[in-house]
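Q: Got a minute? One more chain.
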Amino acid sequence: MVAGLWNLPPECRTVLANHHSVMVDGMPHPYTSVLVMAEHFGAQRRTPYAFEKAPPPQRIIEAGRALRLDDARIALIGKEVDKVRGELTKARSDPA
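A: Always. Here it is, folded:
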């Protein structure tokens, strides 16, 4: 695996190897959960670097639980994602 060739730390290798899952060794993992939520927000908004398919709903729920995010917090994060996306889009279109 590339992570081994790059001599990344074991934790990074674990996260990369399990990046489409919430669970690592039978336990919810916070970093893989963050990646699942990022995939969710990206697919939901069809961002340029997003996967075509969003994670399955159950995986999103598991990731939210692992990160202790309730629906209100997830909505707030979504609004922040929209704000940053708008700022990045504007910055790219401004001929500085």
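A: The radius of gyration is 15 Å.
Q: Perfect, thanks.
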